[in-house]
Design brief:
Elements lengths: L1 E4 L1 H6 L4 H16 L4 E2 L3 E5 L14 E10 L3 E10 L3 E9 L6 E6 H10 L2 H8 L6 E5 L3 H11 L6 E5 L3 H15 L2 E4 L3 H5 L4 E4 L18 E4 L7 H6 L2 E4 L2 H6 L5 H8 L10 E2 H5 L13 E4 L4 H18 L3 E3 L2
Parallel strand pairs: 1-7, 8-9, 8-11, 9-10, 11-12, 12-15, 13-14, 13-15
Antiparallel strand pairs: 1-16, 2-4, 3-4, 4-5, 5-6, 6-7
Helix pairs in contact: 2-12, 3-5, 3-12, 4-5
C-alpha cells in the first residue's frame, strides 16, 4: 500500500529542525562518498523562451522536476508547478531504495519549507564559528522561519536579529521565533542592523534584488543564501570561501545566482565552479572553516537529494505516529 500524507498530517508531526537536519547531513555524506545519483532540476516554462532563460523570471507558468536516488535512504522526486498570480501546487513522491516500491505521496505545502531550509543546518554545523551566538535573519516568510531554526539547532544561538520590509511581519516573526526557540529577538529597521555583529546570517526572501550589503558583513561571519537574487556582489567579493549544496544546480539554476554569475562573467571569480560543495566537507574530502576570521558565503539551491532526505524522514515519522491514509495500488 502507498501512504498519502496530507497537509494536516505533516502539521501533526510537529517537525523540528534538530530532528530533521541529521537526515540532510547523512545525505550529504553519501553524496560526498560518490554513491548518490541526482539530476539538476528540470524547469519547463511557458510561454516558451527562444533566446535562453535570461535573468529574473520571464515566464508566466513553470513546471519543475527534481529527482534523486540516495543509497540507504530512498528515491524521491519533487513535482512543482506555478502560475504567476495564481500560486501553484507541489507533491513530493518517495520510493524505497532497495525495491523501488512506491512508499509515499506527500503534500508539500509545509514540507517544502522544511526541505528548502534544512540544508542551513549542516552549512551552519560545518562552517560557522563554534561559539556563534548571534543570528541575523533577512526575510520573515515560512522558509525564513525554518532557516532560522535550522541554524539555531547547530550552534548556541542566544540572539536573533530580524529584518524584512514589512514591520508587521517582523513583529510576528520575532514573537514566533522567540517562543519556539527560547531566544531573545530584535526587530531590526534595516538589513544592515540585522547583519551587524551577526555570526551567522540566513536569508530567505522573495526578492528580485539584493537584500544584504557586503560592507555590513563582519569577520568570521557565515552568510547563507536560499534565494538566487538576494546576494550582492560585495558580499561575494568579501568571501574567503564559497560553499554550495550543489555546484551543478548553481551553474544551471534559473534564475541564476546573479551576483556570483556576474562576477564569474566579469572574471573576478574563476569561470567554472569557484566553490566547494558541502557534501565534500561533510565527507571529509575538503576543509570546512579554517579560521575564526574567515568569511564564508553559502548558496543553497534546492535539488533532489534534499527531497530524499525530507521524504525519508517524513515517511518514517508518519509510520511511527500512525498518520496518513493508505491508498490502493
Amino acid at each position: 500500500m502507498v501512504l498519502y500524507l496530507s497537509y494536516d498530517d505533516t502539521v501533526a508531526m510537529d517537525l523540528r529542525m534538530h530532528d530533521v537536519v541529521p537526515a540532510f547531513e547523512e545525505a550529504y555524506r553519501i553524496i560526498g562518498q560518490g554513491a548518490a545519483a541526482t539530476q539538476y532540476r528540470v524547469r519547463l516554462v511557458h510561454p516558451p523562451l527562444h533566446e535562453g532563460m535570461g535573468t529574473g523570471r520571464p515566464w508566466d507558468r513553470d513546471l519543475r522536476i527534481l529527482p534523486a536516488i540516495v543509497p540507504g535512504m530512498g528515491t524521491a522526486c519533487r513535482l512543482g508547478a506555478t502560475a504567476r498570480g495564481h500560486g501553484g501546487g507541489v507533491l513530493l513522491v518517495f520510493w524505497d531504495f532497495e525495491t523501488m516500491a512506491l512508499r509515499c505521496i506527500i503534500s508539500d505545502a509545509l514540507v517544502h519549507g522544511v526541505r528548502s531550509a534544512a540544508p542551513d543546518g549542516p552549512l551552519t554545523k560545518y562552517l560557522a564559528r563554534e561559539d556563534a551566538s548571534v543570528l541575523g535573519v533577512i526575510g520573515t516568510g515560512r522558509i525564513a522561519r525554518w532557516a532560522a531554526e535550522a541554524a539555531w539547532s547547530q550552534r548556541p544561538i542566544k540572539l536573533v536579529k530580524v529584518f524584512s520590509r514589512d514591520p508587521a511581519h517582523r513583529a510576528e516573526f520575532c514573537t514566533f521565533i522567540g517562543e519556539r526557540l527560547g531566544v531573545e529577538t530584535v526587530d531590526c529597521a534595516t538589513n544592515d542592523e540585522a547583519v551587524d555583529g551577526a555570526d551567522v546570517v540566513v536569508m530567505a526572501t522573495s526578492t528580485r534584488d539584493p537584500v544584504i550589503n557586503g560592507h555590513a558583513v563582519g569577520p568570521g561571519c557565515t552568510v547563507i543564501s536560499n534565494t538566487p537574487e538576494e546576494l550582492d556582489q560585495a558580499t561575494v567579493r568579501k568571501a574567503n570561501k564559497i560553499v554550495v549544496t550543489s555546484g551543478e544546480d548553481v551553474e544551471t539554476h534559473v534564475p541564476p545566482w546573479q551576483a556570483v554569475y556576474d562576477l564569474m562573467q566579469a572574471g573576478e571569480l574563476r569561470p567554472h565552479a569557484p566553490w566547494f560543495e558541502i557534501s565534500d566537507i561533510v565527507a571529509g574530502r575538503q576543509p570546512g572553516r579554517t579560521s575564526d576570521e574567515e568569511i564564508i558565503v553559502c548558496l543553497n539551491p534546492g535539488f533532489g537529494v534534499h527531497d530524499v532526505a525530507a521524504g525519508q524522514y517524513v515517511y518514517t515519522r508518519a509510520r511511527e505516529l500512525g498518520l496518513g491514509a493508505e491508498l490502493p495500488t
